[in-house]
Design a protein that fits this description.
Keywords: Coiled coil. Pfam families: GerPC. This protein is about 70% helix and about 0% strand. The protein is mostly helical. Helix 1 crosses helix 3 and helix 3 runs parallel beside helix 5. It starts with a helix and ends with a helix.
Length: about 200
Amino acid sequence: MNMYGWNNNYNYVYELQQIAANQNQQIKLLEERINELEKQIQANSGTSIDRIEYHFDQLKIERLEGTLHIGLSPQELANIDDLNIPNPTVQNNPTLPAIYQQSLIPNLYGFVNEQGPAIIQRLSKQYNKPVDKRLEGDMIHDMLGQIPDRVKFYDKEAREQQMTDPSQIESYIADQIKKEIYLSLERFMAKSNTEKGED
């Protein structure tokens, strides 16, 4: 297997580890909450409860104080009722050209996984906005989930600009998404810092 194949496998395994770690943390929090609820029920033993049902399909967990939306302006966000972040796997995006699934998207995933934490921490210091590992992980996960849609957006934009060379298009898309990531993180930090100052 060539070096490129190892990088793809590494990125994929890294993504799975991040997702599993986030899910394990959420499960631990849910277990702690269930234990607290059971203690409360035992303390209020005078109340008769026939049955307790947990509907996890209806459970919504807000992990961030705000959500990082790459490439969306405040006006566009105002027109969106519910923006669900897709699972960051290329297989869920069959509309993407095969070349993007083989090289561009894995490379962008690698960029976010490798460079994202450093960018976040650098901006965190610049804007004096502390970011712990959990928030950093949530931000990375959110960015990974939005990459396929942003690739489609910039692919369309490149073709509207009449770019025809595949390597030129791929380079254009990668550059635009990397700029977007940085600017979105910068806006997020600046906004969070401003909101904190208004309290």
